[in-house]
Specification:
The protein has 192 residues and is mainly alpha-helical. The chain contains 8 helices and 8 strands; from the N terminus they run H-E-H-H-E-E-H-E-E-E-H-E-H-H-E-H. Strand 5 and strand 6 form a beta hairpin. Bound molecules: iron/sulfur cluster (2 copies).
Length: 192
């Protein structure tokens, strides 16, 4: 676990720099939690164990709320007939992450643009007037050069290599000396 935490600190330091560089385009703040809703949240076994370690530090009351949320999501999943089951993260309590310091890797990248071949992945929340909404061309779902220039900001809106599979790759395991283990949607760690 220590080596994993070492990697998390290394990653978080880099991500903090990216968020700082992108600050003219970032609207993230405490209580804004759209990115913790209606998604799948991939978690490796190592990340999951760390998250649980964090949840054990919470008050009994909050732990009970999380358990209730988990039970509800599992029930919803059982009743779901579609292709991809999405849900609100059970660790989101009163619109705040209850395990923030212990959150997963994917959670740490939510607000940035992800490199993705020819077409960068812009955070979906630009549609809600949040991240990058001041520079997105909504029709093309790309960054608008015109809007960027009009802002007169020094730092360009940039895409980063923050794909989840890349951040949890074998190369990372070798470099930092630990194994992530299996990976699956967060809720499946509870329901399978
Ligand atoms: S990524 Fe978007 S939805 Fe999530 S906290 Fe930041 S602004 Fe809010
Ligand atoms: S662990 Fe925390 S940051 Fe990650 S999705 Fe859940 S509530 Fe959001």
């Amino acid at each position: 676990m220590d080596k994993f935490i070492g990697y998390l600190n290394f990653l978080q330091n880099n991500l903090n720099k990216f968020y700082e560089q992108q600050s003219p385009y970032i609207a993230c703040q405490r209580g804004c939690c759209l990115c913790c809703k209606n998604a799948q949240f991939p978690f490796s076994e190592m990340e999951f164990n760390y998250l649980i370690q964090g949840s054990l530090t919470l008050s009994k009351e909050v732990q009970n709320k999380i358990e209730e949320n988990i039970a509800k999501v599992i029930k919803d999943k059982k009743e779901f007939n579609g292709e991809t089951f999405k849900y609100d993260c059970p660790f989101l309590i009163d619109n705040v992450c209850s395990v923030y310091e212990y959150r997963g890797i994917v959670c740490r990248t939510f607000g940035l643009i992800e490199e993705n071949g020819d077409k960068a992945k812009i955070p979906f929340c630009h549609e809600e007037g949040l991240n990058y909404s001041n520079v997105v061309d909504k029709e093309k779902n790309t960054i608008s050069q015109e809007k960027y220039l009009a802002l007169n900001e020094e730092n360009l809106p940039l895409a980063y290599n923050i794909n989840y599979n890349l951040l949890t790759s074998k190369k990372v395991e070798q470099e930092f000396g630990f194994k992530f283990g299996d990976k699956k949607p967060l809720i499946d760690w509870f329901s399978e």
